[in-house]
Design brief:
alpha/beta; 5-stranded parallel β-sheet; 8 helices
C-alpha cells in the first residue's frame, strides 16, 4: 500500500513540480490549497487543474483570511512591485512576503497529515532564484520539522517521525522546470504571477513573472505562460 503524503499546492510552478515529484516517489498524494485573501483567485483554479493532472487522491481548499492582518502586497492594498532588476530583488525582504504564511500553511498540512495517518508533507519552497522570503530557507524547514515531531500525537506515539520534504530548496528555477518537464508537468496549467487577472493571465513584470520567464529561458523550454498583452509578451 502506498504511503500517504500531504502536498501544499498553490497552483504555481514550484508546487506543481513538487506534487509531481511526490507522485513519482510512490506517494498517494493529498493536495492542500488555501483561499487566504490573496489578490486573485485564478491561482486556486490553477491548483484545481494541477491536482487533476497529477492525479491527487483528494484536494482540499481551506478558507482562511490573512487580509485580517494585511501588511503584504498579496493581502493588502499595497502595489505589487513591477520591473525590478535581479539586484533589487536580492535586497531585503520584498513587500510580497506574507507574514508567517508558510508557518500557517504547514500547520494545516500537519493537522491533515495526522488525520490521514501520514508522516510526510511536501512543500515547494525554494531558496535560490527567488525573492528572499525567510520562510523559504532550509533553516526554517528543519526547525519546523523538529517542532512538528514534538507537538503532535503522531510524533509522540507514532512509529515513524514526520518528514517535511522540500525537494526544490536548493534548485534554480531552470532546474525545477527541467525536472518538472521530465515528470510530465503541464506548466501551462499553472499561475505564478503575483498580479494575475481573473483569467489567470500574468502581468509579465512582477518578481515572480521575471523569475519564471528567466527559468524557462535558461532551461531551454518554451514558456507556456499566458501573459496579458500589456506585458508585451505573446
Amino acid at each position: 500500500m502506498a504511503k500517504k503524503a500531504v502536498v501544499l499546492l498553490s497552483g504555481g510552478l514550484d508546487s506543481a513540480t513538487v506534487a509531481a515529484i511526490a507522485s513519482s516517489r510512490g506517494f498517494e498524494t493529498y493536495a492542500l490549497s488555501f483561499s487566504y485573501g490573496q489578490r486573485h483567485s485564478s491561482e486556486l483554479e490553477a491548483a484545481r487543474r494541477v491536482a487533476g493532472q497529477v492525479g491527487t487522491t483528494d484536494h482540499k481548499i481551506v478558507p482562511i483570511d490573512l487580509r485580517a492582518f494585511g501588511a503584504s502586497a498579496l493581502t493588502d492594498d499595497i502595489e505589487v512591485p513591477k520591473g525590478r532588476a535581479a539586484e533589487e530583488m536580492a535586497e531585503g525582504i520584498p513587500v510580497t512576503y506574507v507574514p508567517a504564511r508558510n508557518t500557517i500553511f504547514l500547520s494545516f498540512a500537519l493537522a491533515w497529515a495526522e488525520v490521514l495517518g501520514s508522516s510526510d508533507i511536501f512543500i515547494g519552497v525554494n531558496a535560490l532564484d527567488y525573492s528572499g522570503y525567510p520562510d523559504c530557507r532550509p533553516e526554517f524547514i528543519e526547525a519546523y520539522q523538529v517542532m512538528a515531531r514534538l507537538a503532535t500525537k503522531a510524533g509522540v506515539e507514532g512509529d515513524e517521525a514526520l518528514t517535511i520534504h522540500a525537494p526544490l530548496i536548493d534548485l534554480t528555477k531552470a532546474q525545477i522546470i527541467e525536472q518538472g518537464v521530465e515528470l510530465g508537468v503541464d506548466y501551462g496549467l499553472t499561475v505564478s504571477c503575483y498580479d494575475a487577472d481573473d483569467a489567470g493571465q500574468a502581468c509579465g513584470e512582477c518578481d515572480s513573472c521575471v523569475l519564471r520567464r528567466k527559468g524557462f529561458e535558461e532551461a531551454g523550454v518554451d514558456d507556456p505562460t499566458h501573459y496579458r498583452e500589456l506585458a508585451g509578451t505573446a
